């Protein structure tokens, strides 16, 4: 049997795209290779949100070239966000002529056909055409995880934050039909999945013409079964009070919200085109905490956006301190060609960005430790998702990692008393 190996870069959305690609190859009797060395087809599913991911792709292509030198028929394809940019795709073709197929984000379902064409003698295929049709029906995906599953609810983004390349490489916002999503989630629950994460760049603007996000969540939360539903990402300008109320009300909606702040400075937020200010953001946080005092909150922060001063950065530190996230994803601003911020005056020197991010990481480590320590003595519902040594490992509804003693099986829920914490991690024991 022929085997395909797909290397994924970037976010959970890409991880899920890869799961779907494996399924489309499997339907042609092409299996999944665990290692690139074993594969007849190697695909790099790329990301370009930050420069680091692009650099890794180029580095890995060097290794793929060596494999191809030793295996004549090896077919190599590069797809995803990075190569959806035409100039990048053309440069890649010049630099790496051994790559057989270059496509972007729109034609992933057609990859097996393109590979077939190469087998039939075509030397090189470049297909960056935009196809904004939304797939109908249940997404076939080869999921490796047996407990957690991702489900796309929408594609693309219309927000055009000034630093971000996503709208240029993923196209306009478009929502899957709610009936398809409900069917997919129902099937996953019936197959035993316990954690379903709905994916979209801005899930709050989901709308298939009849159903908006709150209605979709309402319907999904009524699917019978013992499972949690999570979603990401929420844009603070669109997260409605109705959604927050529904999360508080419905046991199957996990008490966890990822709400990227990006900066604590109103001036920088305006330059980023985020369309909210700190007052509006804090208002949402207060409402979440009022209804769900133990809810888990996490966020993304970009340090060193053009013109960011020390005062702006201190406002971000203050916001992070005041809000007290469980978890923070911090990024150094990375210039993306074609975005408005890339040509703004006042680009911040690399050393300053590095110094600011390291202060922010230290600050968040202290906050996360304190928040974890505050959980000691509480009993939480935990979804067991693996093992750590002899102990069980899992996640709380607020998305905290917990290591515990007990006899739950992977994929089962347990009530766990938190007995201690170390850094952001909780430790505990299952209670009967
Ligand atoms: N749609 C989501 C996530 C998009 S990308 C949202 O709006 O939050 C994930 C994160 O990458 C963003 O939240 C942002 O913090 C970061 N990011 C995006 N572009 C970036 C850039 N040019 N430099 C550094 N970080 C960036
Ligand atoms: Fe990028 Fe902003 Fe869209 Fe998120 S909402 S994907 S950060 S443009």
From TrEMBL:
<feature type="binding site">
    <location>
        <position position="161"/>
    </location>
    <ligand>
        <name>[4Fe-4S] cluster 2</name>
    </ligand>
</feature>
<feature type="binding site">
    <location>
        <position position="47"/>
    </location>
    <ligand>
        <name>[4Fe-4S] cluster 1</name>
    </ligand>
</feature>
<keyword id="KW-0949">S-adenosyl-L-methionine</keyword>
<dbReference type="GO" id="GO:0005829">
    <property type="term" value="C:cytosol"/>
</dbReference>
<feature type="domain" description="TRAM">
    <location>
        <begin position="373"/>
        <end position="432"/>
    </location>
</feature>
<feature type="domain" description="Radical SAM core">
    <location>
        <begin position="143"/>
        <end position="371"/>
    </location>
</feature>
<comment type="subunit">
    <text>Monomer.</text>
</comment>
<feature type="binding site">
    <location>
        <position position="11"/>
    </location>
    <ligand>
        <name>[4Fe-4S] cluster 1</name>
    </ligand>
</feature>
<dbReference type="InterPro" id="IPR013848">
    <property type="entry name" value="Methylthiotransferase_N"/>
</dbReference>
<keyword id="KW-0808">Transferase</keyword>
<dbReference type="InterPro" id="IPR007197">
    <property type="entry name" value="rSAM"/>
</dbReference>
<dbReference type="InterPro" id="IPR005839">
    <property type="entry name" value="Methylthiotransferase"/>
</dbReference>
<dbReference type="InterPro" id="IPR002792">
    <property type="entry name" value="TRAM_dom"/>
</dbReference>
<dbReference type="GO" id="GO:0051539">
    <property type="term" value="F:4 iron, 4 sulfur cluster binding"/>
</dbReference>
<feature type="binding site">
    <location>
        <position position="157"/>
    </location>
    <ligand>
        <name>[4Fe-4S] cluster 2</name>
    </ligand>
</feature>
<feature type="binding site">
    <location>
        <position position="164"/>
    </location>
    <ligand>
        <name>[4Fe-4S] cluster 2</name>
    </ligand>
</feature>
<dbReference type="InterPro" id="IPR038135">
    <property type="entry name" value="Methylthiotransferase_N_sf"/>
</dbReference>
<feature type="binding site">
    <location>
        <position position="81"/>
    </location>
    <ligand>
        <name>[4Fe-4S] cluster 1</name>
    </ligand>
</feature>
<keyword id="KW-0963">Cytoplasm</keyword>
<dbReference type="Pfam" id="PF00919">
    <property type="entry name" value="UPF0004"/>
</dbReference>
<keyword id="KW-0479">Metal-binding</keyword>
<dbReference type="InterPro" id="IPR020612">
    <property type="entry name" value="Methylthiotransferase_CS"/>
</dbReference>
<comment type="similarity">
    <text>Belongs to the methylthiotransferase family. MiaB subfamily.</text>
</comment>
<dbReference type="Pfam" id="PF01938">
    <property type="entry name" value="TRAM"/>
</dbReference>
<keyword id="KW-0004">4Fe-4S</keyword>
<keyword id="KW-0411">Iron-sulfur</keyword>
<dbReference type="InterPro" id="IPR023404">
    <property type="entry name" value="rSAM_horseshoe"/>
</dbReference>
<dbReference type="InterPro" id="IPR006638">
    <property type="entry name" value="Elp3/MiaA/NifB-like_rSAM"/>
</dbReference>
<keyword id="KW-0819">tRNA processing</keyword>
<dbReference type="InterPro" id="IPR006463">
    <property type="entry name" value="MiaB_methiolase"/>
</dbReference>
<dbReference type="GO" id="GO:0046872">
    <property type="term" value="F:metal ion binding"/>
</dbReference>
<dbReference type="GO" id="GO:0035597">
    <property type="term" value="F:tRNA-2-methylthio-N(6)-dimethylallyladenosine(37) synthase activity"/>
</dbReference>
<feature type="domain" description="MTTase N-terminal">
    <location>
        <begin position="2"/>
        <end position="120"/>
    </location>
</feature>
<comment type="function">
    <text>Catalyzes the methylthiolation of N6-(dimethylallyl)adenosine (i(6)A), leading to the formation of 2-methylthio-N6-(dimethylallyl)adenosine (ms(2)i(6)A) at position 37 in tRNAs that read codons beginning with uridine.</text>
</comment>
<protein>
    <recommendedName>
        <fullName>tRNA-2-methylthio-N(6)-dimethylallyladenosine synthase</fullName>
        <ecNumber>2.8.4.3</ecNumber>
    </recommendedName>
</protein>
<keyword id="KW-0408">Iron</keyword>
<dbReference type="InterPro" id="IPR058240">
    <property type="entry name" value="rSAM_sf"/>
</dbReference>
<dbReference type="Pfam" id="PF04055">
    <property type="entry name" value="Radical_SAM"/>
</dbReference>
């Amino acid at each position: 049997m022929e085997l395909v190996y797909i290397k994924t870069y970037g976010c959970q959305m890409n991880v899920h795209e890869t799961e779907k690609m494996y399924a489309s190859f499997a339907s042609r009797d092409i299996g999944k290779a665990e290692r690139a060395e074993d594969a007849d087809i190697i695909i790099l599913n790329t990301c370009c949100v930050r420069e680091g991911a692009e650099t890794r792709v180029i580095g890995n292509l060097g290794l793929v070239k060596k494999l191809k030198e030793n295996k004549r028929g090896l077919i190599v394809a590069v797809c995803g966000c990075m190569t959806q940019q035409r100039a990048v795709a053309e440069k890649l073709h010049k630099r790496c002529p051994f790559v057989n197929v270059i496509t972007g984000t729109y034609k992933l379902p057609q990859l097996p056909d393109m590979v077939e064409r190469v087998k039939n003698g075509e030397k090189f295929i470049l297909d960056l055409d935009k196809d904004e049709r939304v797939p109908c029906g249940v997404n076939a995906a080869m999921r490796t995880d047996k407990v957690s599953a991702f489900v796309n609810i929408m594609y693309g983004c219309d927000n055009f934050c000034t630093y971000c390349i996503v709208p240029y490489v993923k196209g306009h916002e478009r929502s899957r039909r709610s009936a398809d999503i409900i069917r997919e989630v129902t099937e996953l629950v019936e197959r035993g999945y316990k954690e379903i994460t709905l994916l979209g760049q801005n899930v709050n603007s989901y709308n298939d013409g009849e159903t908006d996000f709150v209605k979709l969540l309402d319907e999904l939360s009524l699917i019978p079964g013992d499972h949690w539903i999570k979603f990401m990402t929420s844009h603070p300008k669109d997260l409605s009070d109705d959604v927050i109320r529904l999360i508080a009300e419905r046991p199957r909606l996990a008490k966890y919200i990822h709400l990227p702040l990006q900066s604590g400075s109103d001036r920088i937020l305006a330059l980023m085109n985020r369309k909210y200010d700190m007052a509006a953001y804090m208002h949402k946080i207060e409402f979440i905490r009022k209804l769900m005092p133990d809810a888990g909150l996490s966020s993304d922060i970009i340090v060193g956006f053009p013109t960011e001063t020390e005062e702006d950065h201190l406002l971000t530190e203050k916001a992070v301190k005041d809000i007290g996230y469980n978890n923070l994803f911090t990024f150094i601003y990375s210039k993306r060609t074609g975005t408005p911020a890339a040509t703004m005056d006042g680009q911040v020197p690399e050393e300053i960005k590095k110094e600011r991010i390291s202060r922010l990481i230290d600050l968040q480590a202290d906050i996360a430790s304190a928040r974890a320590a505050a959980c000691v003595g509480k009993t939480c519902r935990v979804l067991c998702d693996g093992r750590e040594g002899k102990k069980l490992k899992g996640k709380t509804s607020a998305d905290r990692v917990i290591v515990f003693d007990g006899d739950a099986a992977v994929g089962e829920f347990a009530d766990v008393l938190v007995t201690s914490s170390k850094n952001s991690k909780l430790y505990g024991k299952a209670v009967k």
